[in-house]
Amino acid sequence: MSTPESSGAGPEPQSRNIKWSYMDHWTMRSPSGWVTPQHGVTYADRFYRQLAGVGFQGVDPFEFRLLAQAQLFGSARKAEQFAQDRGIERFVNMFVAFYDDRTHLAETHDALLRNFENKVRTFEGVTLDSFIVMPVSRYWLVEPVTDDKIKTMAECWSRIGRMLKTHGIKLSCHHEFYCALHSREEIDKFYAYADPEYVGLFIDTAQHEIVGIDSTELYLQYADRVTGFHFKDTHHTDTVDDYRTPPDPERAASTTSRWFWEMGTAEGLVDFPKLMRAIKSKGYTGWLTVEHDKADIGGANYAESTCRAKWYIDNVLSPIYS
User: Fold this and answer.
1) At the N or C end, where does the chain have fewer CB atoms within 10 A?
2) Cα 304 to chain center, whole Å?
3) Alpha-carbon 255 to chain mean position
4) How many C-beta atoms surround the C-beta of residue 10 within 10 A?
């Protein structure tokens, strides 16, 4: 990780070009153990007030968590209003779940399109910038990953992205390190085949770093197709093909029990100042998202990781792009 470029003068005012959202993986203590914010109104209230209190302006929910909040509050729109009443500007992007991710099989595409049409109707009360998807199954379920399979995946998402655009929603592909589209060669082929009007790239800094991809270089190549970012760090790269580990390389890999870390740790591998300078050089404006995935491993907690990351934003990243 590069040496922080901080003025030493403390937090600066929020950049007029950038707003910060938070990807919801959060857990918190309760009398019944660790729970998510969707466990009840009291926990949701604490969650949103804490995020707003440290300066986050938006939230990126998972689909299954937003559905749980819709049940809790009566609708997805009422869930967003609850967050807004506690200082959150809006829900920004939604990470989609509950779909057949075997997109390398053409026979799944018709049902997938109908599935995503239903999702649009389910969440029509909330103005979301993007539906974020992992564009295909885990590597071990798809390999060998051939050009024909990649072309089939691209055809699927181009079709779904076209439909989403008619509703004002971007289709954003997020490449986990264990996804069957994870290497630079695979990613380049996929975006060469996918329609640039309908298929965007959502850069996750840690996921790409684990594979050995420099997020800044990836962004500079695809800047006109990048729809957003997950800012999180890693302390490890995959040098032993852990990405092939069944059933879930994030939990069962041999390299480490914890792949993901907040920004600002001494062992971090992602060069966030370099990426922020690139974002500034391209004139990117809008939302950037902090993600803490499995931050509670080993006795850590989401609140601490989130406060550390926001300190890093205010003191290191915001002075670069202000």
Assistant:
1) C
2) 19
3) 23
4) 8
Which residue is it, tokens 């690139």? 278
- Where would I find the H helices in the chain? 41-54, 63-73, 76-84, 109-122, 139-142, 147-165, 184-193, 205-211, 215-222, 249-252, 272-281, 302-312
Helix pair angle (41-54, 302-312), 10° resolution: 20
pLDDT-above-70 percentage for the chain: 95
**Each residue's pLDDT tens digit, 187-198:** 999 999 999 999
Phi, psi (degrees; rounded to nearest 5) at 202: -105, 110
Strand partners, 59: 22, 91
CATH superfamily of 18-317: Divalent-metal-dependent TIM barrel enzymes (3.20.20.150)
Query: What pLDDT score was predicted for residue 295?
Result: 78
- Whether residue 135 is preceded by a cis peptide bond, meaning omega within 30 degrees of 0, is no
Domain ranges of the chain: 18-317
User: How far is Cα 175 from Cα 173, in angstroms, rounded to an integer?
Assistant: 6
Q: Which two tokens stand for residue 35?
A: 């729970």
Query: In terms of Cα–Cα distance, which of 173, 176, 152, 151 is closest to 161?
Result: 173
| Amino acid (1-letter code) at residue 223 | A
| C-beta of residue 288 within 8 angstroms of C-beta of residue 203 | no
Structure tokens at 202: 């959502």
Report in angstroms the alpha-carbon separations of 150 from 147, 203, 243, 247. Answer: 5, 19, 18, 22
pTM: 0.93
57 within 8 A of 289, measured Cβ to Cβ: no
Structure tokens, 24: 């919801």
Strand partners, 286: 18
**Token pair for residue 98?**
């509950």
Cα–chain center distance at 58: 13
- The tokens describing 10, both together, are 């403390």
* 300: CB partners within 8 A, 6+ apart: none
